[in-house]
Task: structure prediction
Amino acid sequence: MHIDAPAKLTLAVPELKDGNLHEIRCIEAHTPSDRLITIQHDDAKKSMQRLELLIMDRVLKDEEFLAVLRTYYPPGPNADKEAALVILESFFTLVTLYLQRTTTNAPRTISTQQLRAELKVYAWSGFEEWVENHCGKRVYEEVMSRMEHRAFLMESSGFGMPGVVSRFWLECLDDVVGTLVWRDDGVKRSEAAFEMDCYAPWVAGVGLTIAAVYRFGR
Result:
């Protein structure tokens, strides 16, 4: 009796939604630093685009954050929201660049500790450039004078507009790591479900065939 091979099924991986952000932050806070995740470029890029939109939606409704921006930017129609968008887009431009350079050629398996360290390099280098371009020479020089080590540039910039941006970017970095872990979890669960859905009927068919052979072939 011929038994067909398991049919191919499509992985059903859940898409990132606004309600997932709290879950993502909990995942990020409790994920061991040696946890390995696999990053696939196109999937990660799509997830980052979705994450940026979700954070953007929240930022534009965060009156406390916008009020802080208004103290540093000249008054004008929607100047605070435009500034928030520039700050957010600048960060995710760095994330996109990181993904292009590290995951374009093939999926990459990496520990969350190493992922954070590599993203941090892109973040602080971009932050230095951002401060230089947006905060003026005096503020830039003060930021650099407070820096003990480049790796902690953002943490040491706890004053004025640089402090606002550094804290926001560090929160976004946590969200990026958490989202990639969340996505990896979703893919693994979907792969497990795929294997069960794909092979269960086939295994059942094999079992019935063996039973029939045993019953009638004696």
